[in-house]
Amino acid sequence: MKRILSGVQPSGKPHLGNYLGAMRQHIQMQNEYETYLFIADLHALTTVRDPELMKSQTHELAVSYLALGLDPKKTVFFKQSSLPEHAELCWILNCITKIPFLERAHAWKDAQAKGKKEISVGLFNYPILQAADILLYKPDFVPVGQDQKQHIEMTRDIAQNFNQIFGGESLNTPEALISKEVAIVPGTDGQKMSKSYGNTIEIFADEKTLKKQVMSIVTDSTPVEAPKDPKNCNVFALYKLLATVEESKALAEKYKKGGIGYGDAKKLLLEKILDHFKEAREKYNDLKDNKELIKSILEDGEKRAKKLAKATLDQVKQKIGYK
Q: Residue 150: which region, alpha, beta or left (left: phi > 0; alpha: psi -120 to 50)?
């Protein structure tokens, strides 16, 4: 069975964009691949400075994945910071990687373009830690969005550079696995759904909050009785991502015919969200306060991940003369 690895930063309450863009694919892949999934809390330290927030967001992400269907028996699910091998391999790779190479990274260029001041070494060094995260587990594939493809290419370059300097094939060169089905999910304002834009629809929000978020979706001023274009409607775009083909066609016909208002369409979307996530929302409520269970699941994943991470790091240490 081929192996895949993914990491997800703990950054708050999961929303539809998180689910449709990555979480759903991660959960589906556990049935097709040997799956490693880690909570990238070392990466999160570049932005999170509150220890209680770090803890709560890490717990939130773990609970959310488990509620949505991640099976810890099928997926090696763990916390990045629990394995010092990540930081140790990162330092080794730091020592053979040139600064101009890192200056090519999109994240670094974006930070500079936005005029950010006092950019941390951690942000600059992001691609090397990401390479260490990946190379420790020798995956065949790394599922990423198109915007992350460069980081996998950089990981491959770093691995090849190490192998060339020290000889042998201690570090493998995984391939990016880019799903063509990953949706661009519009937020309530029509931009890409993102916490930074404040335009999210949260999967596990209480029903009152969820309704408020759905009803805040921006629409035009077309009257109820007038025909509407489903292709240019944020409400329909979100509905289509969760509905069946038949349900989407039916709503599209109502739009084109006229007589349905955006308020009614939003109510249909709310119903669809509640129905789609009914089981997950119930499981989330059962799990969210059981911190000991979540801790034990992550610790078990850590032990399983440790075996592979340590074996790879030992190989690397032998190559560079540490063993």
A: alpha
